[in-house]
Amino acid sequence: MQSDVSTIKDRLNIVDIVGEYVRLTKAGANHKACCPFHEEKTPSFIVTEERGSYHCFGCGKGGDVIAFIMEIEAMDFPEALKLLGDRAGVELQKYSPQQKKAQDKKARLFDATALSVRFYEKQLWESTGGKKALDYMHKRGISDAVMRTFQIGYAPDGWHHSEKFLTGKGYSENELAVAGLLIQKDPNRGTPGYYDRFRSRIMFPIADVLGRTIGFSAREL
Fold first, then answer.
1. Which of 143, 10, 120 minimizes the C-alpha distance to 64?
2. How far apart are CA 133 and CA 139, in angstroms?
3. Residue 100: predicted pLDDT
4. How many other CB atoms are there within 10 angstroms of residue 9's CB atom?
5. pLDDT tens per residue across span 75-112
6. What is the model's pTM?
């Protein structure tokens, strides 16, 4: 695995990678920009091509090209390495059993969010509550084509609609809570259990650079 890391870093120029996310300007031997990790008006984010590193003197974040992708794409190390490995044309070594188990666990969460997208879409186009959401979107000038392109959906009013759908697909309530789709009730304030995080909301899926749904933005209807 360590040889993969070295090969990837040797093949990729950190200036090229970072430059896809922020506008870099030459500053002597370095490149600078406003930091993508916190708001600032005076650039304090420095990329050093020779060392293959970045550092922000404002918020203190820094590291190599892998650390940058992990931070800006909210990925763990294997995911960032896979993304950059594909970019560099490096076939990665196999994961250890522990790494494979962790990846499989995370893959289930991505699958659960992908199923949620389809569930919310179906509710938008086929349910009574969805008709209200469609009418609202049409009044705002959003066409059917745009809604389908961006997989906009509708979370029905109620406490357990998506919970019943997803647990029926084999996911545990705990997994769905970790994925951010359910909320666990406070055991000190009544009956323990879980309920839907999103209710009576227009749903906007948020995808990462790999096209996987990593969360939702929602508008109360």
1. 10
2. 10
3. 73
4. 17
5. 888 888 889 999 999 887 766 777 777 778 888 999 99
6. 0.65
